[in-house]
């Protein structure tokens, strides 16, 4: 007795909360009520017919409508129509709810599946990043140790370089002073050694002797192996009595010329030795500076 359900398109339900779960389908409840009412109406109609038969009275349609049973039947029929309409409305609502539940369930299920997939991907990514972070932390610690070691090496090299530079500056200054003094002495002696036989002032002779003595004492280790024993004896004799080597009296011309030449040669040899040593020291200083700069570039 229910009308056939019309096909309906599934449209979104305005309900946004959790879908309603009916304890018992509405349309089944409506059918049950309608069946009960129909049975009740038939029973009432049977009772009315049986009573009329037993009484032996003739049937009167107008009178039948006014009977209580007829009124009840009419009321039940009206109620039946109302219930049928309400059942159709309830069925429409139920279909909408069912459609919404089905659609929402699919959407939520897909959303959950997508979220679980995303969680799995993010978990893998987190594990990868965690491993990468641990590796980078280890590398950072190793680099920090390496930097500390390089800094220590650079500090040591810097201290050594400063010491080398200070020593070179002192040595260079000393050699330049010695070379200058010897050059002046050679210049003084060259005037006499050249054959001019000029008489030297006593002050200049003493100055040359003092220079020779001072340089031989100060650079004894440097001159070791440079001057022969005979040259050392001649230098010592000149320091003790310089006037014997540069006497202006003509009778001594033949005697002092070879001796003055020997002293002149000793002074020149000492000057050349100091110049050569200065050149080597300067080359060594340049090499030390380059080595330090290379080390600094490698450690920084």
| Poorly predicted regions | 1-24, 50-58, 248-257
Give the fraction of residues assigned to helices: over 70%
CATH topology of the largest domain: Four Helix Bundle (Hemerythrin (Met), subunit A)
β-sheet strand percentage: under 5%
Shape: rod-shaped
Query: What is the H/E string?
Result: HHHHHH
Number of strands: 0
Tell me what the CATH architecture of the largest domain is. Answer: Up-down Bundle
The profile of the biggest β sheet is:
none
Count of spatially separate domains: 2
Radius of gyration: 66 Å
Mean pLDDT score, rounded? 77
- In the CATH hierarchy, what is the class of the largest domain? Mainly Alpha
Kindly name the structural category. mainly alpha
Keywords: Coiled coil
Task: Outline the secondary-structure elements.
Elements: H1 26-55, H2 61-65, H3 68-196, H4 202-218, H5 229-240, H6 253-299
Word description of this protein:
Keywords: Coiled coil. The chain has 300 residues and is an all-alpha fold. The protein has two domains: 90 residues; 147 residues, Up-down Bundle (Four Helix Bundle (Hemerythrin (Met), subunit A)). Helices cover 80% and strands 0% of the residues. α1 packs antiparallel against α3, α3 packs antiparallel against α6 and α4 packs across α5. It starts with 25 loop residues before the first helix and ends with a helix.
Write a compact overview of the structure shown.
The chain is mainly alpha-helical. The protein is 80% helix and 0% strand. It has helices at residues 26-55, 61-65, 68-196, 202-218, 229-240, 253-299.
